[in-house]
Amino acid sequence: MEQLYARVEGEGQPLLIIHGFLGMSDNWKTLSGRYATLGFQVHVPDMRNHGRSFHSDQFSYELMVQDVLQYMDAHQLSKVAVIGHSMGGKVAMLLATQYPDRVSKLIVADIGPKYYAPHHQAILAALSAVDFSRDQERADVEKVLRTSIHDEGTLQFLLKNVYRVSPSQLGYRFHLHALVNNIEEIGQALPDDAKYTGPVLFVRGGKSNYVLDADCVGIQHHFPQVIFKTIDQAGHWIHAEQPQSFFECTARFLQQ
After folding, report:
1. I want to staple 7 with a disulfide (CB 3.0 to 4.6 A). Which of 25, 55, 125, 255 is the partner?
2. Active-site residue among 25, 32, 53, 86?
3. Residue 236 bears catalytic tag
């Protein structure tokens, strides 16, 4: 099996950070450096079909958990603290509930264990509208994306994935075709009987609608030891929008 690409920083207790849908390890560069100063060895892998990791037509949470386990085994990480955002939070939840002996602590950022209906179609359609044989400069790609993506933060986040495949050709780091074909997978719920009894922190954005008050009972069903923290001024991209608040509450939990 192919190995995940990862950024590794620092020395000490292993901390694994799992990025969200259409993201990559680079999104966590600043925060991973800060966790490293606390005495963690921070591993930030790119998930399959994302960043610099391998491309595959198969894409599911089960497979991503196996990819992460394989990465942990290859790096002799017997037990890790895990932070997962959005899609990465779902991977982290499944990892902790299926392999509780491999996870010392779990932090989930702005996602719940429930089913989410597909809601990335507009972004995927915008990305699919780019024709790299025609759009040969970053400015061309940006112009196409701007016609349907009006949020500046989202636009810049997506443009991070545009790179030079060759001197004359741009492309995406993510495997767009596989992500479009497996869009139903992204919203899948955690299995009903999934349980992890270790320490868990759920951090949600006060301006986000991903984790509602009504979801808390369902979260407690899977994670009886859960602590909830809301960062009022943040939307779904908590760690990018309010990095200081996110770092403080997660660092406190990791160091307890």
Report:
1. 25
2. 86
3. yes
